[in-house]
Amino acid sequence: MTTKGHCLCGAVSYAFEGAPTWTCYCHCESCRRNCAAPVTAFLGLYATQFRWTGAQPASYESTPGIRRLFCSTCGTPMAFDADHYPGDVHLYIATLENPSTIAPTEHVHFEERLPWFSTDDDMSRVDGSSETHTELRKNHKIQD
Ligand SMILES: [Zn+2]
Ligand SMILES: [Zn+2]
Fold first, then answer.
1. How far is the CA of 60 from the centre of ligand 1 (A)?
2. Which are the contacts of 1, defined by CB distance < 8 A and separation ≥ 6?
3. Under 8 Å CB-to-CB from 117, ≥6 apart: which residues?
4. Which tens digits make up the pLDDT trace of 133-143?
5. Minimal CA–CA distance to 108: which of 31, 24, 39?
6. Ligand 2: distance of its center to the CA of 48 in Å?
7. Which of 72, 79, 92, 124 could form a disulfide with 58 if both were Cys (CB 3.0 to 4.6 A apart)?
8. For the domain bounded by 2-139, which CATH number is listed?
9. What distance in Å separates the CA atoms of residue 65 and residue 47, rounded to the nearest whole number?
10. How many whole angstroms from 27 Cα to the centroid of ligand 2?
11. Distance 12 CA to ligand 1 centre (A)
12. pTM
């Protein structure tokens, strides 16, 4: 199955095959500022599942080794790309053509959340990075 997504203006678009490997809400301050939103939701893929189908996104290095990809026309955040996750692509669920089809399954960097932000769910909440994602990478032997 092919899933598609795009930015606000439609210049940057992507497609991927199969199911996401992992999903989460990220409460970290960098994602919050990058998305200008109290929290963002990610889906993870293997790079082999994924392709850009429109204009290439622009890139901003938010921390050494971490790049935030975005549409240079409309500014929509499009992807998170990190040297410490080689072979992984992290997309924002909100950029899917149909974001209602893929839901987050855990909260990460929960210690950085805004105190007034609350969600009424029973998903796990972790301080720092996802243990699920780390375990997934280990099991699939993606080399760091
Ligand atoms: Zn755009
Ligand atoms: Zn984050």
1. 15
2. 17, 18
3. 27, 38, 39
4. 888 888 876 54
5. 24
6. 23
7. 72
8. 2.170.150.70
9. 17
10. 6
11. 6
12. 0.91
